[in-house]
Every structure is written in structure tokens, then in C-alpha cells.
Specification:
- It is built from seven helices and nine strands; from the N terminus they run ββααααβαββαββαββ.
- The longest helix has 50 residues.
- It is 48% helix and 17% strand.
- Helix 3 packs antiparallel against helix 4 and helix 5 packs parallel to helix 6.
- Strands 3, 4, 5, 6, 7, 8 and 9 form a seven-stranded mixed sheet that branches. It has a two-stranded antiparallel sheet with strand order 1-2.
- Strand 8 and strand 9 form a beta hairpin.
- About 3% of the residues have low confidence.
- By secondary structure, the chain is an alpha+beta fold.
């Protein structure tokens, strides 16, 4: 609408000016269109959200179907059927990695369960043999008291009881090693401990001890004195069972190449026990450190081996951060212990 300027109170010297006024007119059609749009949005937005949510739910459910399959399979796994394995989807993502790790865990559990069952079976067998022998000895002495030498009967019974006690102690030590947690370094007097252990295992074959001059008197190692003494005692017991005439024990210490000025020098303790007994075949040199393993020449009860001593030594060395190996050198069977040690004193007494 065009309105002259003087009609709206404007007095301009430049003459007539036209004022243009614009207005929006809402007719019935526009109002209906707006109502329709509002209604459409009110309905369309919830429907769209519900549709998108449904599609997302179906898609996620489909993608997680392998996870549900894995969950149901794990629910079925028990100690009696650890041989089962999970379905591994070939998706190349985290779900496939989860299934593969689950199968690896099941395999480790199966191996551990088999080892435990084998250990129980072997332990029961080894306990049964001396118990049966002891029972037979006592039963014969009871049935025929006049024909039995009492002293010999008691000696036989004592020998079997000692075997049982030694086996029970070794079984207990294995259990303690399985639950052993690192408690830092333990200071030991190496020479005094070696001397004490050798005195207990000096018959029937004498043990010759060789100690390097630079061996520290006190060292810190990752296991306590009792465990280190047990490892050494097991090696000497094994040597006594097989040696013909010679057993040598070597003790040495390799100092660190470099050492921080603000810390104790950390080196390596070396212990070697050599005997001139029958050689160990190369294929058996790892197997002898497994529990209840006996080679053919060591199966007789008279030799007294339980098949646990070398396995215990290997476990003790692992707890100390070291290892044990066996080699054949110049006609001698040599067992070597190697483990980290910290020199805490170099003074001699």
C-alpha cells in the first residue's frame, strides 16, 4: 500500500514522499497448512526415532550374536569337559580376538587340569608302594613272630617310613612353591650353607667341594636359605644315587659387568654338581625335571628316588629367577644352577 507522506504527518521540503507499508496476511489456507505441518512433525519424529532405534537394535543384536554364542558355550564348560572350544567368528574384529583368547585360556586350563590329575595319580602311586611294603613287613612280623628278626623288621619298617616322610615333605614343598610370592632378596651365607648340605650327603661317595676365591661370603637371592638348601640337597641326593666314585661340587660368582653407584652390584651365582654315573640321554635332559619322572636305571626302590627332587629344584630356580640345566662333559653328568644374586658382603671370616 502506497500512502503519501503528508497523510502520515510528514512535512518534507523535497516534496511528496511515498511511504510503502507491507503486511503479511494469514488466510485460512496458510493456517491449515501450518496445522498440518505441526501434526506431521508430531507424528513423524517419534515414528522416525522408533524406526531408527528398531533398526539399530536389530543390527546390534545381529552383530552381537557371536558374543551370545560364546557366552552360552562358556556357561556349559566345567572341569569335566575342559576340552570344549568356543566358536570363533571370522569377523576380523574384537569379537574374533575375544573368542581366540577364550580358547587359549581354556587350553591352559585343560593343561593345568591334566597336570593336576597326573600329579595326583603319580602321588597316590608313590604313596601306595611304601605303604604296601610297610604293611607287608608288619603283617609278616605279626603272623610269624618267632621266625622274624625283630631288628631287621624294624629296620625295614623304618626305611619305608622314611620314604613316606620324604615324599610327604616334597609334596608339601611343591604346594608351597605353587603359592610362593616374591618377598624380595634373602641374605644367605653361601659357603656355610654349602658346607652344611655337603656334610649331610657325603656318603657313600665323598663330595669334593671347589669354591672360587672371589666368592662373596654373603649374597642376596630370590629364595630363602631353606629353599636354596633344598635345591642343592636334591642335586647331591641325585648324584649319590648314580655316582660310581666321584662327586664334585663347584661354587662360583660372576660379578656384574657394570653396576650403578647407588645400588648393590648384581651378578650371577653358579652352582655345578658333577658325578661319574651313567650318562643321561639328550632326549631325557629336559624330561627329568618333570614331576615323578624316573629314567630306567632309577626305577628300583632301593635307589629311593621319588621323581620329585629334580622337579623341585627346577621350581626353586624358577622362583629365584634362574634355571637348572644338565649336560655331559668329559664323562661326567653335570647339573648347573644359575640364578641372579646380589653381593651384600665381600668380607671373609
Amino acid at each position: 500500500m502506497d500512502i503519501p507522506s503528508d497523510h502520515v504527518g510528514l512535512d518534507l521540503d523535497a516534496g511528496q514522499t511515498v511511504v510503502r507499508i507491507a503486511a503479511v496476511i494469514h488466510d485460512a489456507t496458510s493456517e491449515q497448512l501450518l496445522k498440518f505441518l505441526r501434526l506431521a512433525l508430531f507424528i513423524a519424529i517419534p515414528v522416525t526415532v522408533a524406526l531408527v532405534g528398531s533398526v539399530a537394535y536389530v543390527a546390534v543384536s545381529f552383530s552381537l550374536r557371536p558374543v551370545d554364542r560364546i557366552r552360552r558355550k562358556l556357561k556349559e564348560v566345567t572341569a569335566a569337559n575342559l576340552g570344549q572350544r568356543l566358536f570363533v567368528p571370522r569377523t576380523g574384529d574384537e569379537i574374533q580376538a575375544l573368542a581366540e583368547e577364550g580358547n587359549a585360556a581354556l587350553e591352559r586350563l585343560e593343561i593345568a587340569e591334566h597336570s593336576q590329575q597326573q600329579f595326583i595319580t603319580n602321588a597316590a602311586h608313590d604313596l601306595r608302594s611304601p605303604l604296601a611294603s610297610l604293611y607287608s613287613t608288619l603283617e609278616i612280623a605279626r603272623l610269624y613272630p618267632d621266625s622274624q628278626n625283630t631288628e631287621q623288621t624294624l629296620a625295614d619298617a623304618e626305611q619305608q617310613v622314611k620314604r613316606l616322610m620324604a615324599l610327604a615333605e616334597q609334596l608339601l614343598e611343591i604346594e608351597q612353591l605353587n603359592s610362593l610370592k616374591s618377598t624380595g632378596l634373602h641374605e644367605i651365607d653361601t659357603q656355610r650353607l654349602v658346607t652344611a648340605v655337603v656334610e649331610l650327603h657325603s656318603t657313600p661317595v665323598p663330595v669334593t667341594v671347589h669354591i672360587k676365591d672371589d666368592l662373596p661370603q654373603l649374597v642376596g637371592i630370590g629364595v630363602d636359605q631353606r629353599l636354596f638348601g633344598s635345591a642343592l640337597s636334591n642335586l647331591l641326593s641325585n648324584a649319590q644315587r648314580h655316582a660310581r666314585s666321584t662327586i664334585n661340587l663347584h661354587l662360583a660368582y660372576q660379578g656384574p659387568i657394570t653396576a650403578s653407584p647407588d645400588s648393590c652390584p648384581r651378578g650371577t651365582m653358579l652352582v655345578a654338581v658333577a658325578n661319574d654315573g651313567p650318562p643321561i640321554a639328550e632326549q631325557d635332559r629336559d624330561r627329568i625335571f618333570e614331576r615323578f619322572t624316573r629314567l630306567d636305571e632309577a626305577r628300583s626302590a632301593s635307589q629311593g628316588g621319588s621323581g620329585l627332587g629334580l622337579a623341585l629344584t627346577a621350581q626353586i630356580m624358577a622362583a629365584a629367577g634362574g634355571d637348572v640345566q644338565v649336560t655331559q662333559e668329559s664323562g661326567m653328568t653335570v647339573f648347573r644352577l644359575r640364578f641372579p644374586a646380589t653381593e651384600t658382603s665381600t668380607q671373609r671370616t
